[in-house]
Amino acid sequence: MGPPGGGKGTQAGLLKQQWQVPHISTGELLRAAVRDGTPLGLKAKATMDAGELVSDDLMLGLIEERLSQPDAQTGFILDGYPRNLSQAESLDQVLARIQQPVSGALLVEVDSEKIVDRLAKRAQQEGRSDDNEATVRKRLAIYAEQTAPVANYYAEKGQLVQVLGEGEIAEVTQRILAAVNEAGWG
């Protein structure tokens, strides 16, 4: 977990290699299900084509389907989910049902102003119009309101590890590995 532009995807990709477990990005999962025409993908496509957001239940179904695959049996990195408390509670129920309980939740912390600067640079380098300052600030506000409380949910359960996500990518990775090893779930 962490704010948009905080480096979650970058770190998840590196940790996937380190731990030999799948990196499951909900955005990629959704796009693949739609592309592959799975039953859940077809439902998601119809919803998106109607200009609506994919429901929590549908997204949770996609996640459950993915986590039931053989490569996720020894572990996984879930990126982009849960985004709110309701999703966290529902995810816990699914994970209990498939006997894949949460080992821990990682919070990558980055100062908001550094994120605005980071994403402005990314917008210039990659031509991403969704990384303009106004949009980034709105995404940060939504994160603070909806997603940040999920960290408290996992902290109360003793499952949260917090790591500073600022600095060189390799430095952040080393901080994560040290924190996860110290927590005993790496």
Describe this structure in words.
It contains eight helices and four strands; from the N terminus they run αβαααβαβααβα. It has one domain (8-183): P-loop containing nucleotide triphosphate hydrolases (Rossmann fold, 3-Layer(aba) Sandwich), CATH 3.40.50. The longest helix has 24 residues, at 133-156. The strands form two sheets. Strands 1-2 form a two-stranded parallel ribbon. A two-stranded parallel ribbon has the order 3-4. With 186 residues, it is mainly alpha-helical. The mean pLDDT is 90. Helix content is 61%, strand content 9%.
**Percent of residues in beta strands:** 5-15%
Give me the Rg, rounded: 17 Å
CATH architecture: 3-Layer(aba) Sandwich
Q: What is the ordering of alpha helices and beta strands?
A: HEHHHEHEHHEH
Uncertain spans, ≥5 residues at pLDDT below 50? none
What does the main sheet amount to?
2 strands, parallel
Q: Total strand count, please?
A: 4
Compile the SSE list and pairings.
Elements: H1 8-19, E1 23-25, H2 26-36, H3 39-49, H4 56-67, E2 77-79, H5 85-97, E3 105-109, H6 112-126, H7 133-156, E4 160-164, H8 169-183
Parallel strand pairs: 1-2, 3-4
Helix pairs in contact: 1-8, 2-3, 2-4, 3-4, 6-7
